[in-house]
Description:
The chain is of the alpha+beta class. It has helices spanning 4-12, 46-62, 64-77, 89-99, 106-120, 218-240, 254-263, 266-269, 292-306, 322-360, 381-404, 409-419, 426-434, 451-455; strands at residues 25-27, 82-86, 122-129, 136-141, 146-152, 155-164, 172-176, 195-200, 243-248, 278-283, 372-376.
Amino acid sequence: MTTLRDRFQAFLHPPTKPAATAAVTVHVDDSPGWGSHQPGPLDRSWSERRVDLDEALEAWQRNFLIRRVVTLVRSYVVGNGISISSTNPQVDAWIRTWWTHTQNHMDTRLGPWCDELTRSGEVFVTLHTNRLDGISYVRLIPASCIQAIETADNDYEIETRYGELPATATQLTWWNGPGHRNAFKLTRGGALPPVMLHYAVNRPVGATRGEADLNPVLPWALRYQEWLKDRVRLNRIRTRQGIMDLKIADDTIVEQKRQQLRTQDPLDAGIYVHGPGEEVKMHNLEVNADEAGADGQILRLAVATGTNVALHYMGEGEAVNYSTAKEMGEPTSRFFTERQTALCGQLIDLASSAYRRAAALRHVDPYQDLELVANVTEVARADNVSLASAANQIAQAVNYLAIQGWIDKKTALQLTMKFAGEALTDEQLTAIIANLPPPAPPGVPSPDTSTQEATQ
Length: 456
């Protein structure tokens, strides 16, 4: 129980309020306070990940082997470019407008997007939607800035928020993720808050973040760079440390000859003229590193193997013939194709999210299926020739079977598309058959065949 004196002292000297501290988070949404992070069970610590991300970026900036690997992946995965289209005319027109918008220029973002996947194993994309026209502006955020990922309590695959820590900031900025309840919900002012999307490769089961392709090979790429520097340094030392031993018979002119050699270096001139009273010997330093070439090749092979790239892709073609290069290039082509498929899927998801946000603002009609497809150059173009030849041969064979009545049109079309490398669903096969022109009467050639083909 407080006394009268205590209350009087409290009146004269009121307790000061503690100084207001900086907020722990900056909220993009209206969720309360700092939430507990729910990483995957196999996620590594942020400090360990940050070291790998910084080292990968520095190696890409300074190491020519790493730069070559990253450029190779971009060249084959992106190729001549990737575009997204839709069989729905309204959706296709909106996607083209969004893709080529002056705030997006998606064609120029494909290369850096692919490079970030190779260096960091993941890329973070933010969408900022203009409420006036429904167009979402795309911005890429480096993985090194995303320190925390919040997920649903009972499902780590549902990502709700992302904590960004910019280089000059001391506190996290939180972005809504696709799993957040407000990601596609209008505010009271009729606007959409920004949303962040996360795309990853090399993501282990049980983890929320991807792993870079460069992580296993960075130490070996750095060792190769240091080994190469040592070789150049040793050769330079050997060249500079060439020693000329001059023996003079007359001792009275030794000092005079020494001063002459200091002003006129015979090593630089490459020639030295002397008389019978002088004896000259040149001492050559030898490195004696006969296995140096093999050592360098082993290091390059380690880097190439760890990045799924054959050595001849990196200019190592002296001991490789065409057949060997073709067999060695098959695993690399499959890796490039897999990465290209992943990138196309990410772009389709990004376009779908942008269209969904425009539909939330009622600028476009909502559709359950946007029918989006990715248009991209094939990685292995030689395979297209083989597939075309196989499709041509099987088409002639199944056409004969269909004429004989041994198989129906749907089976014939399915076999033909299988050998062409395209797997179609039953709905697609039915739609194609429904649009076929009616068969010509017996003895009458069809409009798209010549008289000779009809006779055959």
